[in-house]
Amino acid sequence: MHLAITGFNPILLWLVICASRADFAANDSLHSAI
Question: How many whole angstroms separate alpha carbon 7 and alpha carbon 14?
Fold first, then answer.
């Protein structure tokens, strides 16, 4: 399991960055809506 995580670390990191950007965009749209 750890080997799989370390092997796909760059991909997981990219997914985390995309998820954080999506959350930031959603929060920004909510703030702009208010």
Answer: 13
The answer to whether residues 29 and 22 touch, using CB atoms and an 8 Å cutoff, is no
pLDDT digits (tens, 9 = 90+) for 1-34: 566 656 667 888 888 888 888 888 888 877 776 5
Read off the tokens for 23. 């959350």
Distance CA 3, CA 28 (A): 36
| Residue 5: alpha-carbon gap to chain centroid | 16
**Which tokens belong to 18?**
């995309």
How does DSSP classify residue 8?
T
